[in-house]
């Protein structure tokens, strides 16, 4: 799961930098229109600042969920990209899926750069669900289905199918699986519907999980379950499919409280 990395609270003030150009549509560019509080020296316009804040706060922005921010981002992509670069982030925009998110930048020399992201590992239950969601999304899109749904019970059953036979703490396992569903919904990989037990699979799942990562995770799951990996199991997608998507699963596993 090409997403699902994030800053979830206002834990930083990255807006004391410079912007070269005013946003499209502003006629006078009056500096007085930029100030939003006393001693405010930012040169970003309010809509740009709110868009940047949303990118820092949320795991991703989408045209569907954040239409206002999406339009501002497209109109001011380079300005906002520059602000993120100053915080050692890269901006990734997928216009096909209409999704944008930040990711940790990597130096040209490979030396580590300062990071505002905190490592948080996914649970086994979350990993099983992400692999399943990625496969389900791909298979149904191959059949021409653009909007893909999944039921809560289907996800619970998928986790149960990968549970070792010797496991005895069924109630605790069920509790962990339910928590994993809530976690993926919070991360935006599962989008809530009118039915609390039915979710829409976010397209960010496909972006965050390129084919090679999917195979790696499947092998890991089989090893954890004590089952020899089936070489064809994770190859449900075309073996020759071009994997030019960024490897962002690690970023999805990073969270900022």
Put the structure in a nutshell.
The chain is 39% helix and 9% strand.
Mean pLDDT across the residues is: 77
The description of the largest β-sheet is: 3 strands, antiparallel
The tally of helices reads 9
Which word captures the global form?
elongated
Measured between the Cα atoms of the first and last residue, the distance is: 22 Å
For the largest beta sheet, what order do the strands appear in spatially? 1-3-2
**Stretches with pLDDT under 50, minimum 5 residues:** 1-27, 231-257
> What's the total number of strands?
6
Category by helix and strand content: mainly alpha
Instruction: Return Rg in Å.
Output: 20 Å
- Sketch the topology as an H/E string, one letter per element: HEHHEEHEHHEEHHH
Q: What percentage of the residues does DSSP assign to strands (E)?
A: 5-15%
Q: What is the percent of helical residues? A: 25-40%
């Amino acid at each position: 799961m090409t997403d699902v990395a994030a800053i979830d609270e206002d834990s930083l003030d990255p807006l004391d930098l410079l912007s070269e150009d005013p946003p499209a549509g502003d006629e006078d560019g009056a500096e007085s229109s930029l100030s939003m509080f006393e001693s405010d020296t930012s040169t970003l316009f309010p809509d740009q600042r709110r868009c940047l804040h949303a990118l820092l706060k949320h795991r991703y922005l989408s045209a569907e969920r954040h239409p206002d921010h999406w339009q501002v981002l497209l109109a001011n992509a380079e300005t906002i990209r520059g602000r993120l670069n100053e915080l050692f982030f890269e901006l990734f925009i997928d216009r096909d899926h209409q999704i944008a998110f930040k990711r940790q930048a990597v130096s040209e020399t490979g030396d580590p750069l300062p990071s505002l992201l905190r490592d948080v590992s996914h649970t086994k239950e979350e990993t099983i669900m992400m692999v399943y969601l990625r496969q389900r999304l791909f298979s149904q899109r191959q059949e021409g289905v653009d909007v893909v749904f999944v039921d809560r019970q289907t996800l619970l059953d998928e986790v149960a199918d990968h549970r070792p036979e010797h496991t005895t703490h069924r109630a605790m396992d069920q509790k962990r699986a339910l928590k994993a569903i809530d976690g993926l919904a919070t991360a935006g990989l599962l989008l809530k519907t009118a039915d609390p037990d039915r979710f829409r699979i976010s397209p960010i799942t496909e972006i965050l999980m390129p084919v090679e990562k999917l195979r790696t995770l499947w092998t890991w799951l089989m090893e954890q379950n004590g089952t020899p990996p089936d070489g064809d199991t994770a190859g449900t997608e075309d073996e020759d499919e071009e994997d030019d998507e960024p490897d962002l699963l690690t970023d999805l596993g990073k969270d900022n409280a």
